[in-house]
Write a structure and sequence with these properties.
Length: about 425
């Protein structure tokens, strides 16, 4: 008789309840693939009385996830509560203290505490797996840590927040303003409890910081990421980008530069004909580039009960198979500190601004850009009824620092109304 892998599952919401459901539905298939049964011993959530559409009566109940993590009849603590700190972190630490393995979907906790948790796990020879934390059902952690382990990774890129991609593509296809589509996404239950995590780019930034750590052998450095959300993207930006053959995506890019690690998560224009440009709705896409393999494109559901539970189960089956791998693909103690790059790759930028319609206005804007070393490639002024003229400028490739200097100088021209929108154009 093979020894079962005993699980304690904390969090029975969208993801946790689905993990329990699949384990109850397909025990033989999962047991055969894992080489031993996966047995849920105990579960925990806030409310014991909530109907979760799954029979919990076979399992012990713990009100306190830390108590669940400390149970010695559990081999793996499955953390599916969420939150960077609080009970998720306390319970994970408690489980690691006694050498239990961890499987989690919690990108926020790992983005903030990944290094300390990885060191704690590895000190106890425990595994900590987090496939579900990045891009839901897409096996991107596995792709980087296993499939591409022999490559020098040159760039990691992707659309990793389904909610933002839904909002941006729906604005374009339905011609609706941001605020309307944001409300729609909220009604559909897409948004995190704190929507700024989604639309502010933070959730996607958490995910990119984890992939960057694996890809470049560096400590997780979420606090060094350049972050910008999609809140200021207007339907005009989307239309004008489309006019020029681009789509706007909340795009993450991580790459090594001469002086450090470049990590940015921000709305960018990407060619409409590129795989990223064609990504619709709540789908995610991750592009990985390696010196030997070239480019790999992974696409699929980045969220939702089934896809996320699928990733949790993959991790659990690996633990049952006794497959051991350092948390970030190499021993946590060997991960390097990566200074934030001061020399982000130059790129062309899209600028939208509103100019007072008077003689010399365009000339003074062109001069402000030119004085900062930013050269104009294309420029359009749109017809208008009032005294403020919508103007669109596409620059030649320039350093972000030069563009920032130009943006700082624009108010002094006395002709620019409000804050210009500046979006990087990523040729991929
Ligand atoms: P959720 O639906 O909000 O569920 C959270 C669960 O945690 C609930 O069952 C809740 O209990 C329980 N919980 C919260 N605080 C607790 C506490 N102090 N003690 C005990 N239980 C507590 O969240 P989710 O969508 O399943 O997400 C879970 C994790 O997966 C998060 O880290 C999330 O970022 C990650 N993730 C989610 C998705 C997705 O599509 N949903 C995708 C990728 C990753 P009650 O039910 O009693 O309130
Ligand atoms: N809020 C996230 C998204 C959930 O929209 O992609 C999955 O991490």
């Amino acid at each position: 008789m093979t020894t079962p892998l005993r699980l304690g599952i904390a969090g029975l919401g969208t993801v946790g309840a689905e993990v329990v459901r699949i384990l109850a539905r397909s025990p033989d298939m999962i047991g055969a693939r894992a080489g031993r049964p996966l047995q849920v011993v105990a579960v925990s959530a806030r409310s014991r009385d909530k109907d979760r559409g799954v029979d919990l009566s076979p399992y012990d109940w713990e009100d306190d996830p830390v108590a669940l993590a400390r149970r010695t009849d559990i081999d793996v603590f499955v953390e599916l509560m969420g939150g960077s700190d609080g009970p998720a972190k306390a319970a994970t630490e408690a489980a690691l203290e006694r050498g239990a393995h961890i499987v989690t979907a919690n990108k926020a906790m790992l983005a903030h505490h990944g290094q300390a948790l990885a060191e704690a796990a590895e000190a106890k020879s425990a595994v900590l797996r987090f496939e579900a934390a990045v891009a839901g059902g897409i096996p991107v952690v596995k792709a980087l840590t296993e499939g591409l382990a022999g490559n020098e990774i040159t760039r990691v890129m992707g659309v990793m927040n389904g909610t933002c991609n839904y909002i941006l593509t729906r604005m374009e296809t339905a011609g609706l303003p941001y605020e309307t589509v944001f409300q729609e996404a909220n009604a559909l239950g897409y948004l995190e409890a704190d929507p700024s995590l989604d639309v502010g780019g933070i959730d996607a930034g958490h995910k990119l910081s984890l992939l960057a750590s694996i890809a470049f052998g560096t400590r997780v450095a979420f606090d060094q990421m350049q972050l910008e959300g999609i809140e200021r993207i207007s339907i005009e930006d989307i239309r004008q980008a489309a006019d020029m053959g681009y789509r706007i995506k909340l795009l993450g890019v991580a790459q090594r530069t001469a002086d450090g690690l470049e990590q940015r998560m921000m709305p960018c224009l990407v060619p409409a004909s590129s795989p990223l440009g064609q990504l619709e709705g709540g789908t995610n896409m991750v592009v990985l580039e390696g010196d030997a393999v070239g480019q790999i494109v992974l696409r699929g559901a980045g969220a939702g009960a089934g896809p996320t539970a699928s990733a949790v189960l993959s991790d659990l089956i690996d633990v049952a198979r006794e497959f051991r791998l350092p948390v970030f693909g190499q021993a946590a103690q060997t991960l390097a500190d990566a200074p934030p790059s001061q020399s982000a790759t130059p790129a062309p930028y899209y600028l939208r601004m509103s100019l007072q319609d008077k003689p010399g206005a365009l000339a003074s804007v062109a001069a402000a850009l030119g004085n900062a070393g930013v050269s104009i490639n294309r420029m359009r002024q749109y017809s208008h009824d009032d005294n403020a003229a919508p103007v669109l400028i596409v620059t030649h490739a320039c350093a972000r620092s030069d563009l920032d200097a130009a943006l700082q100088a624009l108010p002094d021209t006395g002709v620019v109304e409000g804050d210009p929108v500046a979006l990087r154009i990523e040729e991929i």
